Amino acid sequence: MSRLLLQFSHLFKSFGSFPLFEDLFFSIHEGECFALIGENGAGKTTLLQLLAGRLPPDAGSINRAPGLSIGLLPQEITLDEPSMLVREFMEKGVLSDLEKAMAACLDNHLAKWAELHEQYEHLGGYRRMPIEQCLHGLKLDSRLLDRTCESLSSGQRMRVGLAKALLENPDLLLLDEPTNHLDQEMTEWLTTVLKQRKGACVIVSHDRTFLNATC
Predict the structure, then answer these.
(1) Residue 11, domain CATH
(2) What is the pTM of this model?
(3) How far is CA 101 from CA 115, 120, 127, 129, 211, in A?
């Protein structure tokens, strides 16, 4: 059986007096892909936030596998540092930090390098997509890398956020309406990438064709 990544037990979540989830059981294994569909306000985005650990449940438990890496693409990208270059934004993350640390200690600290290498391999670093391939698939000009995040259009910003999430190659990838700013060609490319992933994926989308092809 594939590795258990995350499990909800007796989970309860409400907003005010309105219950969103009651006594919810839910488990995700490596390689699985789930589609979340429903009307606006049904709690789909809230469930992604619970999965990502950004919201606590009101009751119940959430058990995550040791060392589990989770990537979340929200519907809207919030910029903590609007003046940051796109290149810097895309390079922020666990795998990029490990790559830099490995390069820094390669010559003089082989034991530390071996430890970092093991972490990098476990997190899928050697399976991560080349940045050029990702930019091409999402029709992002490489010259955008040297622009500030705040200079991008909303569509460009979302595609950059999607590219970053894919490049990090987390164990569990959470996508909230990922096709909103994609044309058909980009959507087909994304479908292919997600189907080739080893990790698990949970997708919120109103695009039934995309969901049927991906999950």
Answers:
(1) 3.40.50.300
(2) 0.81
(3) 11, 10, 18, 20, 38
